[in-house]
Specification:
alpha/beta; Cytidine Deaminase, domain 2; six-stranded mixed sheet; five-stranded mixed sheet; 6 helices
Length: about 260
């Protein structure tokens, strides 16, 4: 979206036209029943929904559910979608649907119940990432952040395989939305380690990169996707570090300017 504004610089008032990142509401229902309402950057709704379903333990099968557009707004942005899933295929996460709006800054806001215990075994990996390799992955991610270059107002997440090949990258005003879109893409295209257990490891995601900080919800999404390496441009929270230690995720933060801090 382009908008007229005035930039004030050295006491000078300069008319400008700025590009802003879009933020719109999306209501998601499952089998006709409301599940969550989230604020996000429009586009790639199927990836976003597939990622949410997987990372919130609602649906973790390899086959992809059917999503239907129910409503669009005057800008032609999708505002309501419904997902059809057989009752017997629904996971425990369906019991913790949201009762409030999920904002762009928080991926777990509005949950009826919160259980921060991530169930399951530790992740394992024989991959060894060097700081120089992580820096190269971030350079690859940065080179694809077109929306950020235009607006300066969005986050990015990207997944790479064990050879450092980019599998997908998504940008969104919400950092957890960007992660959900990436994980949804992995699930839709048989690159997700957690559910595509019969796929060659060369085709699976091995490392998740995020442009912001790492807190609990990012770690939980990474773990439920089965991705053993997580790297961030910014800081990590204490809870994020503790869960990465517990679940076998290799965590790197402050990945910038040829520096990396490894926490786990």
């Amino acid at each position: 979206m382009r908008i007229e504004a005035i930039r004030i610089e050295d006491n000078k008032f300069i008319p400008v036209e700025d590009e802003l990142v879009d933020e719109e509401i999306l209501q998601i229902s499952i089998n006709g029943s409301p599940y969550t309402t989230t604020m996000r950057t429009p586009g790639h709704e199927n990836e976003l929904i597939r990622g949410i379903l997987l990372t919130e333990d609602v649906y973790s099968k390899t086959s992809n559910p059917i999503t239907t557009v129910l409503e669009k707004n005057e800008k032609d942005f999708i505002t309501k979608m419904d997902v059809r899933i057989a009752a017997e295929d629904l996971g425990e996460g369906i019991q913790t649907k949201r009762n409030l709006l999920s904002v762009t800054s928080c991926g777990v806001c509005g949950k009826y119940e919160m259980d921060l215990n991530l169930k399951g075994a530790k992740l394992s990996s024989t991959l060894s990432l060097l700081p120089s390799t992580i820096g190269e992955l971030f350079r690859k991610m940065s080179s694809h952040q077109e929306l950020f270059r235009k607006t300066g107002g969005c986050h990015a997440a990207a997944a790479f395989n064990q050879h450092g090949q980019l599998l997908c990258l998504y940008e969104d005003i919400g950092r957890h939305n960007a992660v959900d879109k990436v994980i949804g893409h992995l699930a839709l295209h048989e690159h997700c380690p957690a559910i595509h257990t019969k796929v060659s490891s060369e085709n699976l995601a091995a490392c998740l990169l995020v442009s912001g900080r790492v807190s609990y919800e990012i770690v939980s999404k990474c773990y439920r996707a089965g991705i053993p390496y997580l790297a961030a441009v910014s800081a990590a929270s204490s809870l994020a570090v503790n869960y990465c230690k517990e679940k076998g995720i290799h965590l790197f933060a402050f990945c910038r300017e040829h520096k990396v801090t490894q926490y786990t």
